[in-house]
Amino acid sequence: MLSRDENELITRVASGTPMGNAMRRYWIPALLAREIAEPDGEPVRVRLLGEDLLAFRDSVGRVGLVDEYCPHRRASLFFGRNEECGLRCVYHGWKFDVSGACVDMMNEPEENDFKHKVQLTAYPTCELGGVVWAYLGPVEHMPPVPKFAWTAAPETHLHVTKVIQECNWLQGLEGGIDTSHAPIMHRLLSESSTRGGFKPSNPFVRGKAPKLVVDITDYGYQYAGLRPLGDAEMHIRTYHFVLPFHQIRPSRAESGVPLVAGHSWVPIDDETTMVYNWAYSPGEALTDLDRQERGLGNGPVHVDPATFRSHANRANNYMLDRNVQRSESYTGIDGINVQDRAIQESMGRIVDRSKEHLGPADKAIIQARKLLRQAVKTVEAGGTPDGTGTSYYALRAHEAVLPSGADWRREVTPEMRAEVILQTV
Known about the structure:
This protein is α+β, with helices and mostly antiparallel strands. It folds into 2 domains: 115 residues, Rieske Iron-sulfur Protein, CATH 2.102.10.10; 276 residues, Naphthalene 1,2-dioxygenase Alpha Subunit, Chain A, domain 1. 17% of the residues lie in helices and 26% in strands. The strands form 4 sheets. Strands 11, 12, 13, 14, 15, 16, 17, 18 and 19 form a 9-stranded antiparallel β-sheet that branches. A 4-stranded antiparallel β-sheet has the order 5-6-7-8, with no helix packed on it. A 3-stranded antiparallel β-sheet has the order 1-10-9, with no helix packed on it. The radius of gyration is 23 Å and the shape is globular.
């Protein structure tokens, strides 16, 4: 468990908080690039780490991410005109480019030219993997751009979505790096079920409770769940945790194509999270069926494509069906990630971790909390936190059934491509 002070330390991310200062040292997903696909299109509101921002694409395709409020009289620039390489406030006509520089003042006579003295807060951005990423920290500490392996996949093989989760970001992250819950909560009760989840014959379900091996690295950690399958075999499922809030795991598409997949739990504010869901196929191209994400519950059937809010939510008990729970799935809730959101939101907006009782199966969660606290301490001491280098660029995750006693590291770690293991816990 954590003390209440420690819990506050790593969950609060507003500007000026210790965790907020640490998180601003990383590139952060801000929105999907397709939300601002059109040059001179309408601006899009973005709330990130408790800050109200606007994203827009200018006339030549550059992306701006700026303070929502005009520095003149604090009117919202959401109502502004995106025109001729700048966003113009409709109140008095002040105009700002993607760097935040004021380039025109319609309400001031030419002799009163002082636009060079006005600066709208603006953050650097980059586009990778269909996502606009933002850096909200000190420019002198800007890390290399976030070239995860999935961001380099061709569009035919990559799929990215997002959905709002109504709780603190750390609850989502901890659910994502908790391998012991997955074959329990996400299991199906029948081989014939067509719902999302793991069928009884899946080795992930057939295996016994896992032994966790966590290898600390300079980006976070890689870890494996080792599940005995009788006396002759074992099931290995590997993951990565990349600071501050990224998970990488093996997966499988609706069509059966093997995938590398994962999530990023990005804080909108302390009590709300935008979950980015990504998957890419190293082999065959993804199908239209794969992009529906029906088994996960992240596609257009489950999530409003305009608001990114799930149709199954707290107000309707996530569409829980007790008959389905009795006969088909462990939870009675459709969609693996809908199940995750339901349980994580059920803990409250920010769970009180001082009341927890953790065990050995929570090793990955315990280590993630340590790494997050260490990142905070490093930034407070003037240093560079782990996970801001480039060692995570080529990471993949892997799943396999191996003979009992096999050298699973030799078989699996090369597939994962972790370069530096600092410590095994």
